[in-house]
Amino acid sequence: MYIVTAEDMYEIDRFAIDQGGIDGTILMENAGQAIAKEMMIAEEKSCHMAILVGSGNNGGDGFVIARYLKNEGYPVKVLQLVPNEKIKGDAAYHKQLLIHQKVPIQEVLTTDKLLECLVNVDIVIDAILGIGVTGEIREPLRGMISIINEQNARIYSVDIPSGLPANENHTIDIAIKADRTYIVEAPKQSLFLENTAPYYGEWKVIPIGIPIEAYGMIPKVRSWNLKDVKVSFPKRATFSHKGSHGKGLVIGGQELMPGSVALSSRAALKAGAGLVTVATMERNIPVIANYCMEAMYQNLSNFGHIDLAGFDGVAIGMGMGRNRTAKTFVEDVLAQEDVPVIIDADGLYHLKELLGMLQERRSPTILTPHYGEMAMLTNQEIETIKKAPFTMAKEFAQEHQVYLILKGKYTIITAPDGTQMVNATGNAGLAKGGTGDVLSGILLAFIMQHESVLEAMNNACFIHGMSADLRIESGQNTVIDLLASDVIDGLTNVFRTMS
Ligand SMILES: NC(=O)C1=CN([C@@H]2O[C@H](COP(=O)(O)OP(=O)(O)OC[C@H]3O[C@@H](n4cnc5c(N)ncnc54)[C@H](O)[C@@H]3O)[C@@H](O)[C@H]2O)[C@@H](O)CC1
Ligand SMILES: Nc1ncnc2c1ncn2[C@@H]1O[C@H](COP(=O)(O)OP(=O)(O)O)[C@@H](O)[C@H]1O
Ligand SMILES: [K+]
């Protein structure tokens, strides 16, 4: 599933029409028909539906939906919120089909009239504005959107809640607050942003018959799914030995934070790493070993140099602390260019002063900031990152030539060439200390076992979230009591589904 901007979507449509020879009216028919069918599954025939249409192609989808619902015997009324002369092109074609079918279309041009029309309506189908919205929402639509949001009726939006921008880095003016959105063909960026996602309500993507080649025209942003994981997940060879599965080093865990590296190292082993060594403070070793007795230990009490020779991957920074000596380790590790390095948590704090070293590295560097850490690394406000996470992540990864995992409800994974993936697994149970440490451990195991770093990152994020999801779905945990250690234990159930 590709994730698009409004401009990408228009380009894809154009390709389908110009190169694929599919008429725009057919795409509109496909969209409207498929959405109407979804509505028929979701709603009883006794429901009173009002289909609200605007001037563009989004309104055109609305005319098609009305035709199919009416045909099936649903009591629908079509409210056209713009004057007749504004309905043009493909939308006008589908309006005409509706007229042929003797479906009345009411012109509703004032908020008062709209209020009258919405009395006794159970369901509003919002086909007012799509991805073509620009600037501030103008009257009378502005007032109308406000009124619609105040109704008790359930609201189903077509493609995007009307008024909401499709792209990141736009200010929300006023928009429909949908209960459910039927997204036409491909999710738009705003579906994945904290401030805009809630407007969509539940959502479903409706394919409309665009040829797959059309996606070759746009920058690749895709969501990673279980099928992708199954294809790319490495098989464990029957004659393998512990050396075949990677020798990983976990560095971190200052005196008051032994749990962090304990979680990372145990997660790495549970995720299949062959051998894991933990470099941490001497006093912490017995505590950590109690939780992860399969790991080996190195004493970090004397800050200085750690020789990475012989290791296939390193994860550094979890619970490492922010004192200056800890920074020397990050610097030391980055300078040893031949080993892939994952930098997390306090390691990112120290990295802030070492960003210049990143471009020089010959092996992959993987950074795993959450939004707060990303703001720190880029000298931006958290709100700025939240508003444009795709762009911020891409610019950073390309500038510093790093792999970047921007962690959140939707995690954005970016390669140094700007390729982006979105991971949607995981739930609010993960919003708790230690879950990021677990992700670092899984990542360490996977980068040592996958040929492609990007696939390793995608699979690590997917599986980390899936483990949390399965714990909740199976009833072993709730989103309240889920612990980072439960996510590690849950890996068994995830790997069971991989074969
Ligand atoms: N071939 C295609 O392009 C297809 C498009 N589809 C639908 O078409 C939609 C995009 O169509 P359009 O490009 O016509 O865009 P819209 O349907 O969003 O309509 C844009 C129109 O809305 C009005 N408008 C824009 N900003 C406004 C504002 N701030 N205040 C008040 N009015 C404003 C203007 O009259 C503008 O021309 C998609 O969201 C999707 O629903 C689907 O039918 C599938 C095929
Ligand atoms: N609401 C949420 N829904 C889904 N995943 C979440 C949510 N909150 C956090 N996560 C995931 O949990 C992890 C938290 O990482 P992080 O903030 O670094 O935790 P810590 O540093 O405490 O270990 C990330 O993988 C993030 O994507
Ligand atoms: K809409």
TrEMBL record:
Domain YjeF C-terminal: 225-498
InterPro entries on file: Carbohydrate_kinase_pred_CS, CARKD, Nnr, Ribokinase-like, YjeF_N_dom, YjeF_N_dom_sf
The YjeF N-terminal domain, residue ranges: 9-216
Binding positions (AMP): 407-411, 436
CC cofactor: Mg(2+); K(+)
NCBIfam families: yjeF_cterm, yjeF_nterm
Protein's name in the database: Bifunctional NAD(P)H-hydrate repair enzyme
Organism: Gracilibacillus dipsosauri
